[in-house]
Amino acid sequence: MKKIKAKKNRNSKKVAVINQNQCDKSPFCPVKRVCPVGAIVPLNEGETQKKKSIFGFLIPKGYKVDEEKCTGCGVCVTSCPMQAVSIAKA
Questions:
Q1: For residues 80 and 7, what is the distance between their CA atoms, to the nearest angstrom?
Q2: What's the pTM value of the predicted model, to 2 decimals?
Q3: What pLDDT does residue 8 have?
Q4: Phi and psi for 33 in degrees, rounded to 5?
Q5: pLDDT score, position 10
Q6: What is the pLDDT of residues 15-64, one digit of tens each?
Q7: Which CA distances in Å does 43 have to 7, 16, 61?
Q8: Pair type for strands 85-89 and 63-65
Q9: Which helix (H) or strand (E) holds 76?
Q10: Which fold has domain 10-89?
Q11: Which of 77, 80, 46 is closest to 60 using CA atoms?
């Protein structure tokens, strides 16, 4: 018998999705730290961040996923303490 390999459809790429309502927007985001390709970036990246916490840390407006970088590995899903990250088809 021949083994048939499944063809990957480029339109069915899986990527991480962040639910902004569940995200706590921590400046120490574990999801951002564990991403092996650096696909998790602050929403306000490139802007001057003016809001600081009382301890002097910059507070991001939230985080987003760079779909070009994301490989859909799912490491971020298991590391989010707020359960704000899921994997979906792009």
A1: 31
A2: 0.74
A3: 45
A4: -70, -35
A5: 52
A6: 999 999 999 988 889 999 999 999 999 887 555 455 666 677 777 888 99
A7: 34, 15, 6
A8: unpaired
A9: helix 75-79
A10: Alpha-Beta Plaits (3.30.70)
A11: 46
- Say yes or no to pLDDT of 82 above 60: yes
Q: Give the whole-angstrom CA distance, residue 72 versus residue 14.
A: 5
Measured CA distances, 47 to 22, 51, 56, 64 (Å): 23, 12, 17, 15
User: Structure tokens of 3?
Assistant: 């083994």
Q: Which amino acid would we find at residue 72?
A: G
Dig out the tokens for 41 from the structure.
């970036």
Q: Given this model, what pLDDT does residue 71 score? A: 95
Write the DSSP string, 11-59: GG-EEEEE-TTT----TT-HHHHH-TT--EEETTTTSPP--B-TTS-B-
> Is a pLDDT exceeding 70 seen at residue 11?
no
Q: Both tokens of residue 74? A: 């799912």
